[in-house]
Amino acid sequence: MAVAVAVAVAVAVAVAVVPSADGHRHARRRRHPAGLSHTTLIKMQCARRTVAATVVVGGFFGDEGKGKIISYLATKDSPEIVVRGGAGPNAGHTIRDGERTYKVRMLPSGFLNRNARVMIGPGVVVDPDVLLREVEDFGAQKQAYLDANCGIIDPAHRERDSGGRLKDTIGSTGSGTGPANSDRALRTLRLARDVESLSGMIADVPHEVNSALAAGRDVLVEGTQGTFLSLWHGTYPYVTSKDVTAAGICADVGLGPTKVDEVMVVFKSYVTRVGTGPLENALSDEEASKRGWSEFGTVTGRPRRAADFDMSLAARAAMLNGATQFALTKLDVLHPECAGSRSFGDLPAEAKKFVSSIEDALGIPAAVIGTGPNVKDVIDRRAA
Ligand code: IMP
Ligand code: MG
Asked: The whole model's pTM is what?
């Protein structure tokens, strides 16, 4: 390890075009150590591959289907830890496993894998009532942890978020997330370490995450909301109260930039937006409903506006997140013949063309494709 660190200091950074598992070429930054033998290089790359941190983030305005993709990856890849960054209980992830539907707002979506520890990073604000209820309802007592430094949402934050400008103009979810983050910036917010009812769940999350990676285990980092709801990169002021791009999510959980192996951006096959703020080429309610694109917010139950897949937004999301791959959800809603398909080869030509057009425009591969609401309804195109 000491050798690898010393070598890393002496490397020159260059951009290389690396072919992905399914033959697509995409540009990734790779470090080319000067003067190292080919064998040493390969050994270093192998060592890197076993230390796998994958970050999953939303590519549009939230509600891209991250919950389903994360619970699939958590079950398929068996990471040691699924750790959540992002804003707070303003997020709603829906997960369907067999006949059961889970709607989670605080618990990381990876809890379906009972062998994984699920953790909330210190950058996330937590509503203890919501978290404790989800832990109880979903039987996650033995696997759920949060950092001592997570900020705490009090009833007064929910109150401030449920009226006035935040609700009427910004279309806030009323969850107290924004007011709690504002108190955190003012350094008046209570932290999880001050809350008795959470004491049994407290962990040093950055330490756990980095120790798991150092021991060669996999960590799945779960983002919330979507790129264009980012406080820095979104459609300000119609945004959430944090940066929610991959870099922000990593900071939330204490993961340094050099530790990230893959960034998977999740796109839905069409774009939706709940709350206020611009949505280019929004369809009329009738048209959205005719296409089967009428959706309702997980947290607020408000109707979501819908529009066609937006390639330029997707390309910008890939850029802002440094995406190395993407997931595409709800392909079966766009092309009903895809429903339940588990193999790319079986897809109708038009659906394949849609997927390839995104790969070509973004220069990264479609790693996972959702073909139905169930966790197992996916085409997984990553290397077997
Ligand atoms: P806030 O984050 O509750 O303050 O809401 C600010 C804006 O972000 C509103 O338009 C919300 O509808 C939107 N928003 C926040 N979180 C989510 C999410 O997880 N999915 C979709 N929209 C969200
Ligand atoms: Mg949602």
From this structure: 0.88
